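Work Package 4 report. The design task specified in the project plan requires that, given a folded chain encoded as structure tokens, an amino acid be chosen for each position. We show below one input record used in the internal validation round.
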């Protein structure tokens, strides 16, 4: 990193970082870059892309709440895109009505009604793995491929009322969609060929006549019938929900299993006190931050941490750096169930804070309940593999050994 006294764009002083946060090296191991960003200053300038970045907890929280100054309406990507704008890419007042509709549909209360369905999915999944186990007292399992990657593609489209179909297409499309928030690199190019076809397929799946009569999709159309949103926006809202909700939850659960396997004393703590399950998921989200970055555009000069970000600049919101900021978290690199992780930024903050967080929490809660019932200990059984995505902390493999009860 070079730290110079003046940025070419900002008035005042701002540290300049030369790293490429979207290089294969950083995507494989993002923590060193995130630490450099956080420790460089409250705001830094990423010379390679000509954008600003915020990686400290206090300043990122302020920035996420300043939606009038740091807009999402020009997109949350580092570059201009011509794809349709979902909830995430709109500002109030346009954002208000669809947000209220989704907030109601995905409220904690509404999700409680799906607990049984979710638990049944988890039972089938885990019992299937247990039945395949060759040795009676332990089970070798890929926590990413065989658990985390299975549950949300089963549960979430089901809860949305999308019929049984090639559900891995959801993951492929969402993977590309998240990649497009980063620069036009090889990851984006690799997904480009299939993207229009997948987008059209998902959009079609979210049309009223294709959806089951019950589920988040039907609820969105009912909101359109009530006049809460426009009919022409209903399918896009449904498809953006699925795009936002599948890969993120998969990687959140992969991270949770990795955290428990590599911190056996925390698993013991959870076994001794199962009511820590919610803390365990939130602490894992703080620790791994499945969403690593989103962008904003400065609608006017914006001052944060004594540094002015000039109007028109793109700004990278670096959630994972803030989630391990020692100014906010004691011993931040430790996955620790005795801390209170609430207030972490893995779900964002402010008007765009994740509207689907209760759906993610429900899946993690059911899975932990099942594991606590059936598994005595969890160990890492090999090297983990990462799946590179420009803005997600993706996993390709989390090899585990469960000792069974
Ligand atoms: C927004 C993370 C699961 C739907 C967000 C944001 C983050 C996030 C960081 C804010 C982005 C920004 O500030 O620009 C996560 C993580 C998840 C998860 C880590 C899983 C562990 C879900 C699920 C759904 C969902 C399951 C759907 C049911 C959405 C939507 C938004 C959003 C629609 C946009 C909200 C708005 O703009 O008002 N999520 N999410 N997410 N998330 Fe999630």
């Amino acid at each position: 990193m070079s730290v110079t006294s003046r940025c070419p764009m900002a008035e005042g002083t701002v540290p300049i970082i030369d790293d490429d946060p979207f290089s294969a090296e950083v995507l494989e191991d993002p923590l060193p870059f995130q630490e450099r960003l956080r420790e460089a200053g409250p705001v830094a300038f990423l010379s390679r892309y000509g954008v600003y970045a915020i990686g400290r907890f206090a300043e990122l929280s302020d920035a996420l709440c300043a939606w009038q100054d740091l807009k999402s309406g020009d997109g949350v990507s580092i570059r201009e895109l011509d794809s349709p704008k979902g909830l995430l890419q709109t500002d109030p007042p346009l954002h208000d009505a669809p947000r209220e509709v989704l907030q109601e549909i995905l409220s904690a209360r509404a999700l409680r009604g799906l607990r049984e369905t979710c638990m049944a999915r988890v039972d089938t999944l885990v019992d299937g793995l247990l039945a395949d186990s060759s040795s009676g007292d332990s089970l070798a399992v890929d926590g990413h491929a065989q658990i985390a990657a299975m549950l949300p593609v089963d549960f979430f489209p089901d809860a949305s009322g999308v019929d049984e179909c090639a559900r891995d297409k959801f993951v492929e499309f969402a993977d590309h969609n998240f990649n497009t928030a980063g620069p036009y690199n090889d990851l984006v190019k690799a997904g480009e060929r299939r993207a229009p076809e997948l987008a059209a397929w998902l959009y079609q799946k979210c049309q009223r006549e294709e959806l089951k009569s019950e589920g988040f999709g039907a609820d969105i159309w009912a909101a359109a019938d009530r006049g809460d949103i426009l009919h022409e926006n209903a399918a896009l809202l449904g498809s953006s929900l699925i795009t936002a909700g599948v890969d993120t939850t998969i990687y959140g659960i992969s991270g949770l299993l990795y955290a428990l396997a590599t911190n056996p004393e925390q698993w013991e703590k959870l076994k001794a006190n199962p009511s820590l399950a919610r803390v365990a998921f939130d602490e894992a989200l703080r620790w791994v931050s499945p969403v690593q970055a989103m962008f904003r555009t400065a609608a006017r000069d914006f001052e944060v941490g004594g540094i002015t970000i000039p109007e028109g600049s793109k700004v990278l919101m670096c959630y994972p750096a803030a989630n391990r900021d020692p100014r906010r978290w004691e011993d931040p690199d430790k996955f620790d169930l005795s801390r209170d992780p609430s207030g972490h930024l893995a779900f964002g903050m402010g008007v765009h804070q994740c509207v689907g967080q209760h759906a993610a929490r429900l899946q993690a809660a059911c899975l932990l309940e099942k594991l606590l019932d059936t598994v005595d200990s969890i160990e890492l059984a090999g090297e983990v593999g990462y799946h590179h995505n420009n803005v997600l902390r993706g996993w390709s493999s989390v090899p585990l050994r469960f000792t069974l009860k």
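Confidence is low (pLDDT under 50) at residues 1-6. Validation will be extended to a larger panel in the next phase.
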